[in-house]
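Case 550 in the screening queue. Each case pairs one protein sequence with one candidate compound; here the compound is protoporphyrin IX containing FE. For every case the pipeline is the same: read the inputs, emit a complex structure as tokens, and attach any notable structural observations.

Predict complex for case 550.
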Amino acid sequence: MTDDLSIASKLPAKQNWRRYFSFSTDHKVIGIQYIFTTFIFFLIGGLLAMLIRAELLTPALNVVDRPLYNGLFTLHGTVMIFLWIIPCLAGVANYLVPLMIGASDMGFPLVNAIAFWIIPPAGILLLSSFFLPDGTAQSGWWSYPPISLQTSSGQFINGEFIWIVSLVLLGISSILGGVNFVTTIVWMRAPGMTFFRMPVFVWTVLSAQILQLFCLPSLTGGLILLFFDLALGTNFFKPLENGDPIIYQHLFWFYSHPAVYVMALPAFGIFSEIIPAFSRNPLFGYRSVALASFGIAIVSAFVWVHHMFASATPGWMRLTFMVSSMFVAVFTGIKVFAWTATVWKGKLHLETPMLFALAGVVMFLFAGITGVMLAAVPFDLHVNNTYFVVGHFHYVVYNTITMAIFGALYFWFPKITGRMYAEGWGKLHFWLTLIGANLAFFPMHPLGLQGMVRRISSYDGRYQGWNIVASLGAFVLGVSVLPFIANVVVSWSQGIKATNNPWHATGLEWVTSSPPPVENFEEIPIVKRPPYDYGDPKVAVIEPVGEEGS
Ligand code: HEM
Ligand SMILES: [Cu+2]
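Case 550 output:
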């Protein structure tokens, strides 16, 4: 394999770990800052989950007290969604999008840095509420009024106040990021990089970020009104004062359902890059997969009421949103079909990124089936607020999206660090994750069907069997990150040097050096053909400046 190209002759900036702790406007540094920071929050969110699972190992309340248990699940959910998955994928996209479209950086590098630097203080602020005398917010990650507006003593709730402020800050960060991604993808593509020559990952980021820009203001607006009710004595959502708490649910889910696809679309993009590379086969149905991203984004903006079937929703609304929700399956089905067809005709190489991607797709299928079940109103009314729902969404957020993130981190590790990771440790990480995740989250489905309600710290003894399995699985998941951390730390400093394109993958990021130089490419490449058509991007995609127009 000789991947050395003249285009990559510019040496990467001196590898100095200190720059990752400084204020930089290089999208690659910012991407790594995002990934590193959010991974710390992932570990913290995971620690909260371990405490939850320790409490649920036995039916009685014996590890924490009730208010603390409420705080644990509230902050676990909030941290995992708003400080792990959404910003971590923003970090992966930050690193990759400019490279993939042949740009030297993001459109607004300074805004990019500001969007990142909002996250650490917002996260620390949120977690600091554990040290308040009356504890953290306790009303779950939705923060529904009127519960979020009450304490046992009826006083002003500091934890809830902090929760709202940090969520608004994180929302501002996401909006800044969204503006930047959309601008960059629309305006900064290299000459010849038409929309239908972009890698599918870029399509998924574009659709996810447009969706985010469209929907996030609704949540931010809702949170500000909630803040007014909490701190300034207004009555928007207080039922006893003629307010309407259901309006909050609409404002909340108008963003928070699409948020699932802000997270899932880039994960689908990652699958669409990894699976062809390790099948040595172009992605089947590129155009359909690319366009299905927009299909998913559009449909998922109109399904939010499926979270409110049990909130005294009128019949016509239930019916409409049941039907629209099922449409999501059409577009995700297109993608699953394309990945299957790519693997079907391909020559499989089962290295760690591919294992994570394949397992992620299979478990997404399972999550999709339980999702369609939940979209059916009669079924949803039956299992609403039970562990069936918790099981369903952890198959999405962990077994699909977190798996995709790990796949991405292994896949682009050589590009990011210039070194190979250790395959054995990667496989160990994969198997521990696969076993742990299924042990932890599968049992939640039978538990929910049997009637175990979510957000309870003690439960009826007949539920204990499956709960022991789930807790053991959670502890396996806790251990599973250790080989990953060891692998990253050791391989980053001592791994075998990586070539420009160790996986024979397509896409402009594999044409430049590993790691890429400061402005990504020696000169901005001119794109002649879509990379997914060919096995070797350096031959197919790039032609030197001056030969355009043939
Ligand atoms: C280490 C692996 C994880 C374990 C063992 C775990 C476990 C749990 C459990 C047992 C609950 C239910 C608590 C209750 O209702 O009393 C829960 C809730 C939740 N989890 Fe996880 N989880 C994990 C990872 C994740 C990840 C990666 C996400 C990403 C988004 C996530 C998001 C949530 C959310 C949103 C809730 C709902 C919180 C609420 O009810 O307000 N979890 N988790
Ligand atoms: Cu939803």
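Case 550 observations:
- Strands lie at 526-527, 542-543.
- Residues 46, 49, 52-53, 73-74, 76-77, 80-81, 85, 140-141, 390, 394, 397-398, 402, 440, 454-455, 474, 477 surround protoporphyrin IX containing FE (ligand 1) (CB under 6 Å).
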